[in-house]
Amino acid sequence: MKITYTDVLVIGGGLAGLRAATGVKQRGHDCILLSLVPPKRSHSAAAQGGMQASLGNAIKGDGDNEDVHFEDTVKGSDWGADQKVVRMFTNTAPKAIRQLTDWGVPWTRVRKGDHQVIINAQKVTITEKEEAHGLITARDFGGTKKWRTCYTSDGTGHSMLFAMDNKAHEDGIEVRERMEAIALIHENNRCYGAVARNLMTGELVAYVSKSTVIATGGYGRIYKVSTNAVICQGMGQAIALETGVATLGNMEAIQFHPTAIVPVGILTTEGCRGDGGLLTDVDGYRFMPDYEPEKKELASRDVVSRRMVEHMRKGKGVKSRYGDHLWLDITILGREHIEKNLREVKEICESFLGIDPAVDPIPVRPTQHYSMGGIRTDYKGESQTLKGLFSCGEAACWDMHGFNRLGGNSVAETVVSGMLVAEYISDYCDSAESSIDINTSVIEGFIRKEKDKLDVLLEPKENAEDAYELRARMEEIMMDKVGIFRNGKDLQEAVDELEELLIRSRNIEVKAKILSASPELFNAYRTQRMLKLALCVAKGALERKESRGAHSREDYPERNDAEYLNRTITSWPDENQTMPKVEYEKIDIGEMELPPGFRGYGKDMTMHHPQSQVRQEEVDKLREELEAQGKDRFEIQEALMSYRDLLPERYRGKNERLYEKFEGEENV
Amino acid sequence: MSNIEEKGRMLKISILRFDPYIKGDVPRVETFEIEEAPGMTLFIALNEIRQHQDNTLKFDFVCRAGICGSCSMTINGRPGLACRALTSKMDVEISLAPLPVFELIGDLSVNTGKWMSGMNDRLETWIHHESGEECDVDRLEERMDPDLTDEIYELDRCIECGCCVAGCGTILMREDFVGAVGLNKIARYQLDPRDKRDDDDYYNLIGDENGVFGCMSLMGCEDTCPKELPLQSKIAYLRRKMVDLRNK
Q: Cys-Cys crosslink for A335: which of A262, A280, A358, A469, Cβ 3.0 to 4.6 Å?
């Protein structure tokens, strides 16, 4: 049996995986990266709109800094996020973007002087500063106080991914394309790599490593219509879950993006609305200001998606053979702007809808888009229960998004988490505790077990099940019963039927009796695993009897901090179980820099935790005292919630800005 | 979008099939019939065929939105992205074959990734810094001319789908030809002030017949590029530049 040893095994070749790989390599560790597809084809490329980092170069981003970015992100998460992780993230995002610049990303730059932009359906002239000319610019995105989303036209993810993959080529990262990790190798609560299957030849091999990183993105494809690439099936989370040891966090936190095209679900970027595009209904009426007078189309994604559904339920949707939809109208932006800054959108409209978005409105509706949940880790990206297993990017729940992610924070998270987690992994690999203490017989046992499972799938069976059929039913259940608005009755039905499907999936028979490159075979074992994830999502949603961020219960419309200010932790201790184990991890208000409050959308229906007010008073008092003593914002922040020591030493520095020079240097 | 229900046409999709990993398999053309649905693309059609008619059919889709470059194949004789190919724009008889040039994985799946990775290594398609120079990530980024970054992005839009390589005449004669994709990369880095390589360095990479002097200006690359990159003018520009360098 083929066993390859390495220091770090990275599973997943998108932005997070590549960044983690280059990071550990730079620290002197050997690394092998497994990817289902050539890394440049990863789903990271689909992030059109941009990356949030508080550079503050653009005039509409003036005065921005880590504090504002922190506040936006925590509020956006509906207080579900780990605030220390958010702090680590917002401090590192400017560094990540500057490093990517150095590696070749052609970020769109500030042009000094007057520019016409569209704000709230009005043409407005803004004047960019002379001294900012040539620095990285930013656009507006939902749920942010400042224009903070840096971009390259509308191919941000593509440019970042190509620069990152090129960097991996420069660093000589060993990439194994078309290799799928199908099981983690572990013993005594310690992870030692993975069994992988070659998708061309069908060969099974083992990669044994000191540490293993899962960076396989989200699990959007458990839904029937998703903006996600077809490979985003959650296999990273699934193999972690199947260890019975590692845990998943907040799996029910699923984001629906307001503007995917109908019917195919391809995304049109939030940049459309950020740049001034409007949402209109069957009468051509702009409805968002009626629901959200302040933020309008640029409220947080969960909020806009719900408002759209509400509006369609009032009969204001546009009827089509694929169900109701609304319009995204970007004609107001003008052809020149669309062809330059929203070209990808234009191409998508032409290729898939046969329309010209400079002339026609775009048919859109909210569609599954992002998985806030994932492999539960600590701030270092390491599983809390399975030593040596790390995770970063969308695959992980470390947890910076809580129950709703802000647009532009996901590509930012990929590189920031990859950058930081690579340092913690390197520290771990440098330590004696990372020593590989596993017998080859145990490793071979893991390979054999996977081989047996594949053989079983091929065996002729009575009442054999068809994987495509089971999967299609799962996708429908998730769409219809675990969607934007949820309720106890539907969720219970979803859980019951998914459990039944899972049991049936044990009797799947693969008709084509080949073990090599067989699309039917990989669909079969992935369907079995996706059903487990779907159950984690549905069961978590059923048990969470409140509405928080993207998790919205019609029967429990209020956010209930008193009972549910916590993280959902799911695990699968016994492989014969048909239901995940659900537990909760408390979130400590006493440690928060920003205690839970009103998020600012609609009516405040929060059932507050008694401790929130106590902590708020503490924070206010401390802030007042320190301000009176003349302390600066860094000193005050440090006193409220110290986090800087958690960062790797090389990334602890302050970030320079035009208006925030380092000591002894002059501000502009 | 049309609200009218119509009975779809019956499409006849002929696919060149062969699995090199199955002993004794022989290349053959198989034809599948399916009813056309509104807005149908080859992505939808092929998945339907796999699900209902032949679940061994191999092809590659990832983003299914025209941005990842995975699904390039020969569609009615021309290289193109299958995910963006609307069946409504085609005759009822559609022929599909894998892209030529690239290693065949099976049926419509080819290993463009391996070819592109080799090209990237060979042309060192990354920013070359002065040795030992590392950027201070805490500091303001280097300024760049806004027009120049736009121009770089224009060439950075390549998705390495391989259509230009499959549509190239030179590569049939010179298997080491870097292709329009490779030459476009050099044009991209040559524009970029962050890359410290000079024209002599680029000459060493592409100043021969496997590089810019191999191109016969048949324009198959530009004709088939799904991203409409200005490949021909960039190749012509590089060629003039390289000729000037040799004549100095």
A: A358
CB spacing of B137 vs A98 below 8 angstroms: yes
Q: ipTM, 2 decimals?
A: 0.96
* Residue ranges of E strands in B111-196: none
Judge whether A218 is closer than 8 Å to chain B, CB to CB.
no
Residues ≥6 apart with Cβ < 8 Å to A325 = A262, A312, A317, A318, A363, A364, A365
Check B1 against A353: CB less than 8 A apart.
yes
Write A633-640 long-range contacts (CB < 8 A, 24+).
A633/A65, A633/A67, A637/A67, A637/A87, A637/A593, A640/A593
Neighbours of A471 (CB within 10 A): 26
Give chain B positions within 8 Å (CB) of A518: 56
User: Average pLDDT of chain A?
Assistant: 95
Of these residues, A19, A158, A257, A567, which one is catalytic? A257
Instruction: Give the one of B58, B68, B194 whose C-beta lies nearest to A519's C-beta.
Output: B58
When mean pLDDT is compared across A251-265, A654-668, B190-204, the lowest value belongs to A654-668
- How many Cα atoms are found within 13 Å in the side-chain-facing hemisphere of A533? 31
**Residue B131 distance to chain A (closest CA, Å):** 13
Are A263 and B39 an interchain contact pair (Cβ–Cβ within 8 Å)?
yes
Say if CB A551 and CB A558 are below 8 A apart.
no
Bond before A399 cis per omega within 30 degrees: yes
Count helices and strands in chain B by DSSP H and E runs: 9, 7
Q: Which residues contact A160 (CB under 8 A, 6 or more apart)?
A: A15, A44, A47, A51, A100, A105, A411, A415
Task: Convert the pLDDT of each residue in B150-207 to its tens digit.
Answer: 999 999 999 999 999 999 999 999 999 999 999 999 999 999 999 999 999 999 999 9
Query: What is the rounded distance in angstroms from the CA atom of residue B24 to the CA atom of residue B15?
Result: 19
DSSP letter at A139? B
Which H helix or E strand runs over B150?
helix B146-156
With CB atoms and an 8 Å threshold, state whether B126 touches A104. Answer: yes
Measured distance CA(A583)–CA(A588) in Å, rounded: 16
Of B84, B106, B121, nearest to A517 by CB-CB distance is: B106
Q: Which of A107, A169, A263 faces B120 most closely, judged by CB atoms?
A: A169
Cα separation, B212 vs B239, in Å, equals 6
Q: How confident is the model at residue B5 (pLDDT cuts 50, 70, 90)?
A: low
Give the closest of B86, B126, B149 to A109, CB-based.
B149
Q: What's residue A263's pLDDT?
A: 85
Q: Test A102 with B140 for CB contact under 8 angstroms.
A: no
In this structure, is the dihedral angle defined by the CA atoms of residues A647, A648, A653 and A654, taken in order, positive or negative?
negative
Query: For residue range A534-544, what is the model confidence (pLDDT) as tens digits?
Result: 999 999 999 99
Question: What is the dihedral sign for C-alpha A506, A509, A514, A517?
Answer: negative
Catalytic residue list contains A109? no
In the structure, how many helices (H) and strands (E) does chain A have? 18, 22
Flag if A109 and B144 touch (Cβ within 8 Å).
yes
Residues of chain B contacting A152 with CB distance shorter than 8 Å:
149, 153, 156
- Using a CB-CB cut-off of 8 Å, the residues of chain B touching A348 are 65-66
> Hey, are the CB atoms on A104 and B57 less than 8 Å from each other?
no
Q: Is A108 on the interface with B (CB under 8 A)?
A: yes
> How much is the pTM?
0.96
Per the listing, tokens 């520290």 go with: A427
A273 is catalytic: yes
Sequence-ordered strand ranges (E) for chain B:
10-17, 28-35, 72-75, 78-81, 93-97, 104-106, 109-110
Amino acid (1-letter code) at residue A104? G
Look up residue A301 and give its two tokens: 């994604």
What amino acid occupies position A37? V
CA atoms lying within 13 Å on the CB side of residue B118 = 13
